[in-house]
Design a protein that fits this description.
The protein has 38 residues and is mainly α.
């Protein structure tokens, strides 16, 4: 049971990290394009 919980925690944390990284990178791209267009 402990191993299953640990694996689920790892999957959840990795998914959360990838989602946060994706959001951050897309936000940076939007800011970059806004600065370039101005």
């Amino acid at each position: 049971m402990r191993i299953a919980t640990r694996s689920y925690g790892g999957i959840f944390s990795s998914a959360l990290y990838s989602f946060a990284f994706e959001h951050y990178s897309t936000h940076n791209l939007c800011v970059y394009f806004e600065r370039v267009s101005i």
